[in-house]
Amino acid sequence: MRYYILIVFVFIVTSCKHKQEESNEVMKLPYFNSSDFTPEWGKARHKIPEFSFTNQEGETVTNKTYENKIYIADFFFASCPGICPKLTENMSNLQEVYKNDEDIMLLSHTVMPWKDSIPVLKKYAQKNHVNVKKWHLVTGDKDALYKIARTGYFADEDFIKTQDESNFIHTENFILIDKKGYIRGVYNGTLEIDVDRLKRHIKILKREEG
After folding, report:
1. Chain segment 33-65, per-residue pLDDT in tens
2. What pLDDT shows up at residue 80?
3. Among the residues of 54-163, which ranges form H helices?
4. Angle, vertex CA 71, rays to CA 65 and CA 21, nearest 5
5. Alpha carbons 104 and 109: distance in angstroms, whole number
6. Which of 39, 45, 131, 151 suits 183 as a labelling partner, its CA being 20 to 30 A distant?
């Protein structure tokens, strides 16, 4: 009898827990308006600024390229021996997951434009099976790239600490941008668990934006 009561009790607690989890499901993503990435609901104040870079095919890539698109942005360099291969692998996986979804795009900025020329990026793109219709690898003016990394995507923690504009940018962040150009999520692009969280958040964002 006691055993039966215990089973019933566990069943009730488990059912309540599942209902609570369902009721607590996130229905809308926050906005991130500052470099400390404090989530703010219903307060869209920081927008990715205007940019113009050149991709692996020598084509100009601007905000217009990503107009009315959800996109994931990151920062890398082709000769990076550390975290970049993992970042690229996970971006490649995202490319595969969303290959048939026209609403989702990817954008990778080099942080070493003095080395990552268009031919270098094209070779890197071919090696990693990058689809230029889905994923742009961009290079350009160093100051413009570093400025948008720091003031646009809040991508450089070291800069926050040092305030040294010449300091090398390196970050493992994947940044989720909505169709209007606002930051809606930040994820560690080297961790599978965070990439999975990013995928869940993309579903939420797609529902939110229709």
Report:
1. 998 999 999 889 999 999 999 999 999 999 999
2. 84
3. 84-97, 118-127, 142-147, 157-162
4. 155
5. 17
6. 131
Least Cα distance to 132 among 143, 147, 122 occurs for: 122
**Model confidence pLDDT, tens digit, residues 173-197:** 999 999 999 999 999 999 999 999 9
The whole-angstrom separation of Cα 83 and Cα 171 is 9
pLDDT tens digits for range 193-210: 999 999 999 999 999 877
Give the helix/strand (H/E) hosting 203.
helix 192-209
Q: Residue 89 carries which side chain, given as an amino acid letter?
A: E
Integer Cα distance of 196 and 190 in angstroms: 11
Question: Identity (one letter) of the amino acid at 142?
Answer: K
- What is the residue extent of each domain of the chain? 31-209
Residue 188 φ/ψ, nearest 5 degrees: -80, 110
Q: What is the CATH number of domain 31-209?
A: 3.40.30.10
**Rounded to an integer, what distance in angstroms lies between the CA atom of residue 24 and that of residue 206?**
19
Q: What is the largest CA-CA distance in the chain?
A: 76
